[in-house]
């Protein structure tokens, strides 16, 4: 990570959605890299201010990517780099609230791109979704060229829309963009809740002595990728010229079963309640996910290093250290 961190020394960086898991960990890394200023823009609709790293070099602005006044405020800081992580997150959330999803993930990125283009930023890195832009007609492992237009949730649709907008700004205005396609990111910094990922929710339920609900038979697999590996990829995307204009998978390129995850979480937390099988959600049609990271290796020297169970232990440790905040703010 240090190879790329040194390039951010003395620079201003805008991180939208900086209070979330990926954003807070990216901010923490940029602090270590001695960035001059990290501007965190977050409306705290799905994250919490206590999760933002504290530093005199971090400027937190509470606001939405839909708010022109807030965007003028953060771009007044003259960011050299933009990491656009803000999103209306989660498939079920988008099914329940499709109009909000379109506004935040569609209009939101369009507005941020417009300001970034006017500001002449050095790089615009967009958080797309590898779990979203590949469909049932895409072959496993998912390769970057094999995207689908037959998708199953508004979130998947708007994540692909975001890539179309970044490509448009690159093609017409020569804005230096990179599309980062994340796969099942997990790590410290994600508070559990109704629309959150399975790992923080499993840990929360297990620590409360509840059975872990599995949709399906448990043999379903996901490409869980630890957040530190994602951060390394993002930092490289901001610097490597070979990445400009590209869509690049950031995953672990390994599969783990949901039943295996549940077993590890129950063991880590000494939860005796076991598991409970529940009906699959009607949009949840992908039983297996695995990324190809050949392109990331070639363009970014990307190599995920965190073992799945070791990563889960780190998240459990974060839960223990922040349990009072998590218990207060978890929303189900």
Write the layout of secondary structure elements.
Layout: H1 2-5, E1 12-16, H2 21-32, E2 37-42, E3 58-62, H3 68-75, E4 81-84, H4 91-96, H5 98-119, E5 123-129, H6 130-133, H7 154-173, E6 177-182, E7 185-186, H8 198-207, E8 212-215, E9 221-222, E10 225-226, H9 227-239, E11 247-250, E12 256-257, H10 258-269, E13 275-278, H11 294-300, H12 308-321, H13 323-329
Parallel strand pairs: 1-2, 1-4, 2-3, 4-5, 5-6, 6-11, 7-10, 8-13
Antiparallel strand pairs: 9-12
Helix pairs in contact: 2-9, 3-5, 5-7, 8-10, 8-12, 10-12
Per CATH, the architecture of the largest domain is 3-Layer(aba) Sandwich
Distance between the termini: 36 Å
Spans of at least 5 consecutive residues with low confidence? none
> How many domains is the backbone divided into?
2
Helix content: 40-55%
H/E series: HEHEEHEHHEHHEEHEEEHEEHEHHH
Strand content: 15-25%
* Widest beta sheet: strand line-up: 3-2-1-4-5-6-11
Task: Using the coordinates above, name the CATH class of the largest domain.
Answer: Alpha Beta
Q: Globular, elongated, flat, extended or rod-shaped: what is the shape?
A: globular
Give the tally of β-strands: 13
Any idea of the CATH topology of the largest domain? Rossmann fold
Backbone structural class = alpha/beta
Largest sheet: 7 strands, parallel
**Count of DSSP H/I helices:** 13
| Mean pLDDT, all residues | 97
The radius of gyration over CA amounts to 19 Å
